[in-house]
Amino acid sequence: MRIAIVDESAARASIIQEGLAALDDCELFVVTERRGLLARMAQIDPDIVLMDLGNPSRDVLEEYFAVSRALARPIAMFVDESDDDAIIASVEAGVSSYVVDGLAPGRIRPILDLAITRFNAFSRLQRDLAEAKGKLVERETIDKAKRILMQSKGLPEPKAYAELRRAAMNQGKRIIEVAEAIVTANELLGAA
Fold first, then answer.
1. Which residue has the higher pLDDT, 173 or 15?
2. Response regulatory domain: from which residue to which, for each copy (predicted)?
C-alpha cells in the first residue's frame, strides 16, 4: 500500500510515520511542501492520503479540499480544532475521515482503516447511484419510443412495447438500442 503523508511540519509527520511503522508492505511518502501538491500526488499515486493540517486557515483548507476532490482516494484529515463549516466542506470534498485533535501514533491505524472503509462504501454508493440514473434514462427513452410507436401506428402501450422487444430480438440488439434509434429517427424527421 502506498501512503502519502501530507504535513508542512516534518515533526508532526513523524507522528503519523510512527503510527504506521508496524504496517507490512507499505511505502510511505512524506510531502511537506504545499505548492504543487496535486502534481506531487499524481507522481506518488497513493492508495491513501493522510493530511495533518494543524490549525489551517480557510484558504489553506480550500487548497487541500481541491486536492481531495481531484484525487478520488481515501483521505484522512487531521486538524487541531473543530469547525462545523470545515467538517461539512471536507465531507463534500470527499474526505473520508476528519479527525479533530486526534494525532497520536496509536490512533493512526484505526483511522486509516476507517478512511479506507468509508471511501469504499461511498464509492459503492456513487456507482449504485450512477447505475440507477442510467437505468432511469433508459426507461425514459424506452417510454418515449413507445409513445412514438403508439402515435404513429395507433398501437396500445403493450403492443408498442412488444414491437420494440421483437425488433430488438430480430436485430440482436438491446431494447434500449432500438428505442434510441426510434427516438433519434423521430427527432431527425422533426416530429419530436
1. 173
2. 2-116
